[in-house]
Amino acid sequence: MPEGSSGLGSPALERVGRGASGAWRDRAALAGVVVFHLALALLVFDPTPNTGGDNAHYITLARALLEGRGYVDLHDPATPPHTLYPPVFPALLAAAMLLGAKPWIGLKLVVVAFSALAVGGTFLWLRRRGGTAFALGVSAIVAASPGVLDQSHWILSDPPFWAFAMLALWSLERSAGGSRGHDGRRLAVLVLAVGLAWFTRSAGLPLVGAAAVCLALEKRWRDLIVLAIVLGPLGAAWWLRSVSASGGYVDQFWMVNPYAPELGRAGIGDLVVRVGENARSYAEAHLPWMLVGAEGALPVALALVVIAAAAIGWVRALVVRGPGIAELFAPLYLAMILLWPAAWAGERFVLPILPVVLAFAAEAAGAGIARIRPGAVRWAGVLAAAGIVAFAAPAVHAAAKFAASCRAAVRGGDRYACLSPRWADFFGLAEWAGAGLPEDAVVFSRKPRIFHFLSGRKGRIFPMTRDPAEFFVRAEEIGARYVVVDQVDALSATYVAEVVARRPTAFCFLRAQGTGSAILFGILPGAAGIADVPERLDSARFERCPADYVSSSSPRE
User: Fold this and answer.
1) Number of neighbours of residue 30 by Cβ within 10 angstroms
2) DSSP string of 140-202?
3) What's CA 65's distance to the chain center, in Å?
4) Which spans in 218-283 are helix H?
5) Distance from the first to the final alpha carbon of the chain
6) CA–CA gap between residue 436 and residue 350 (Å, rounded)
7) Residue 375 — pLDDT band, cuts 50, 70, 90?
8) Local structure of 286: helix, strand or coil
């Protein structure tokens, strides 16, 4: 088989693209797969806000930029410089908001647009790698992926990062004929795409490394120097900013569990265990869900087959094609997500690597079939792609039906109809706080970024400690007079509820929202000096908070 051939299309088909009819066919295929994805993404479009804090944080950072406050955390009482998320995605949101896009729905549609662009970039990269038939088959699987469609309507940086990553892979990919583009425009695209990817998500660092190594292996020293000159100072500046503010992901990476700081820092043994846990969760849960949106033996078996074929395809690509950017990016990125804290593992981390894994798997399958029956390769590719898309269809249909009901509820005025009652109570309490609490109120809560977005009231996540003394020291440090006890997960019950139960006379009752699964307590003056009087939280009696705990413009309840 010729170098660079994917095995999913005949050499004659790959040569067709050089003529006018081939160019038209390529454009039609590109437009078709993008429109296909966009149509599905709009069918499953869910206007419900995401319960993760990241989406609210991105919007708050965008607002800080629009208000001329700088790249700072407006939700935090100290308004510190932000050092966790690189600035490209918040800047994109700020630009969209300047043009009239509004949270949540308007900004969700911006992400849908980036998801469609990413599918288009995936097709362009795959076409350069293996021809149009190869690109169309793999891109169709990606475009119809239930996991990809689910990620397309959350206000998160993953779809833009995926789009930039695909553009970077395209710019350095060897074509099906064995050549690479070495012109100045292709270099400019590479530098821009890698830079945007890196400063959209810190997870873009493996892409930077892959691009640099690829240029070095090809002895493109001038291009490597240009990449280093452009990205080096930017990366150093961001790193210095993170170090000076003691922020970034490094400290959290070294925790055994970022949500259980009492477990301490991870050692080598903990990292080995983490890799095993992550490998299992990605193989048995996240990848099957991305592919077909289902759990069970058959989806897991499909995922394991894809993983095995991709591993074979990666080795084959190294032998046949030589190490290119995709061959280098894949192991670096996979190593990163396997070493990431297991509590953070999820489908969103699969998004940028899914097309690469599927491409390697398809190449391996095509090469194997070609050895047995060369004429069957093309039809086998069509059947495989159609089979996976059909397997995923029930999940897409269910998502579309659910999303339609959510859109109807939102049009009817119930913004939180598709949240669980516990989350709806938390969101409702945060909305009430916007009018109910004084403007200078500082609140401990499980999701301080969402709370701030909905209420305008600043705060931090509650201290993850069961010791009342430490809790009140932390409250005094930031001037917190309020704390939310919720049931959205186990953290509030594990930490805050126990502190409240151990020292109930240090708190006053302010509001219970909805079904009562989100309760707002006030922290009374002198709470640090009040003695512990342990009680059961459900039987403890709390006095109503004094009048000054509520905004003067809010009616007393």
Assistant:
1) 20
2) HHHHT-HHHHHHTTSS-SHHHHHHHHHHHHHHHPPPTTS----SHHHHHHHHHHHHHHHTT-G
3) 21
4) 221-244, 250-253, 268-281
5) 77
6) 41
7) confident
8) helix
User: How many other CB atoms sit within 10 Å of the CB of residue 546?
Assistant: 12
The first and second tokens of residue 262, run together, are: 């009492």
Q: Could you read off the pLDDT of 444-462 as tens digits, one per residue? A: 999 999 999 999 999 999 9
d(CA 445, CA 468): 16
Q: Which of 108, 134, 110 lies closest to 123, judged by CA?
A: 134
530 class by beta-carbon count within 10 Å (0-12 exposed, 13-18 middle, 19+ buried): middle
Measured CA to CA, the distance from residue 301 to residue 62 in angstroms comes to: 42
Of all residues in the chain, what percent carry a pLDDT higher than 90?
Answer: 76
Task: Indicate the pairing of strand 442-445 with strand 458-461.
Answer: parallel
Strand partners, 17: none
Kindly list the distances between the CA atom of residue 452 and the CA atoms of 76, 153, 295, 427, in Å, as whole numbers in the listed order: 9, 22, 36, 11
Q: Which two tokens stand for residue 548?
A: 């000054």
Q: Which residue has the tokens 């391996």?
A: 364
Predicted TM-score (pTM) of the model is 0.90
Say which amino acid occupies 76: D
Q: What's residue 11's pLDDT?
A: 41
- Quick one: which of 24, 41, 137, 61 has its CA closest to 386? 137
Backbone φ, ψ for residue 36 (5° rounding): -60, -50
pLDDT band at residue 367 using 50, 70 and 90 as cut-offs: very high
Residue 550 and residue 408: Cα distance in Å, rounded? 35
Cα–Cα dist 557/79, whole Å: 31
Query: What counts of helices (H) and strands (E) characterise the chain?
Result: 23, 5
The rounded distance, in Å, linking the Cα atoms of 481 and 521 is 9
Q: Give the long-range contacts of residues 108-112, CB within 8 A, separation 24 or more.
A: 108/45, 108/47, 108/153, 108/154, 108/155, 109/45, 111/152, 111/153, 111/154, 111/155, 111/156, 111/159, 111/160, 112/38, 112/41, 112/42, 112/45, 112/152, 112/153
Which residues are CB-contacts of 109 (< 8 A; sequence separation ≥ 6)?
45, 101
**Residue 520 and residue 549: Cα distance in Å, rounded?**
11
Report strand pairing: 458-461 vs 507-513.
unpaired
3-state helix, strand, coil in the chain (%, to 5): 65, 5, 30
Helix (H, G, I), strand (E, B) or coil at 459: strand
Inter-residue contact 76 to 458 (CB < 8 Å): yes
- Which of 388, 435, 442 minimizes the C-alpha distance to 141? 388
DSSP state, 52? S
Confidence of residue 159 (pLDDT cuts 50, 70, 90): very high
Residue 93 scores a pLDDT above 90: yes
User: For position 391, what pLDDT does the model report?
Assistant: 96
**Cα(385)–Cα(388) distance, rounded to whole angstroms?**
5
